Amino acid sequence: MKKYTYQAKNFNEAKNLAMTELMEQEENLYIKEIESSTKLFNKKSVIEVIKKDDVVEGIKDLIKDIVSEMGLTLNMEVKKRDEVLNITLYTNNNAVLIGHDAKTLDALTTIIRQSINKDLGIVIFFDIDKDLAMERTLSRIACPHCGTSYNLLVNELKPKLEGICDKCNSSLEIRSDDTPESFITRFDTYINKTQSLIDYYKEKNVLREIKVEKDLSAQDIFSKVEEIVNND
What we know:
The longest helix has 24 residues, at about 180-205. Helix 4 (about 105-115) runs parallel beside helix 7 (about 220-230). The chain has helices spanning about 10-20, 50-70, 95-100, 105-115, 130-135, 180-205, 220-230, and strands at about 5-10, 30-40, 40-50, 75-80, 85-90, 125-130, 140, 150, 175, 205-210. By secondary structure, the protein is of the alpha+beta class. The chain is built from 7 helices and 10 strands. The strands form 4 sheets. A 3-stranded antiparallel beta sheet has the order 1-3-2. A 3-stranded antiparallel beta sheet has the order 8-7-9, with no helix packed on it. The chain has a two-stranded antiparallel sheet with strand order 4-5.
């Protein structure tokens, strides 16, 4: 989430400056005073500002990054009302997302809450081997009728009957865009576009990497993210 810093003689002047430059009303901004001085010849107020819409997008990106490593496909809806964000996740694999005794869903909730409340200032990067990523991607199959997705490498995501959709009994198909050639193009493009950002965050000492191994479960990944969130 992008942060903006403004300085003026007092808090109200700094706030008004932020609202003017960002072209946003106060109710659309999170504003925090991070430094102040009331000395006669050095009066100042320094504020840090985050757009509420950026917070929403940041949460969406965080959820997508984590859940994608679980091999799940989902849609989400984030509604903002006053100071409350309501997040609804839609997936055809609720059992995997919820986890045993709701531990996975609780962990995801904790991570989101911590990232907002603690204002982490860190970046989590999921480092996955190219061959493993391709193996997982090319193991996806989907129902052409109801859209339900499956993954043949994840026990919880396999169809009950091989090649048959659990919901509508239609024959499952490999996604048309899941080919080795298209995957390599997408993967290489992603790495090339993000490598400079990765290097930048490393230099700033705010990058935290999680190595995604083949035998890591969804709960293992959540535990690693929770550890980072709680210790930073």
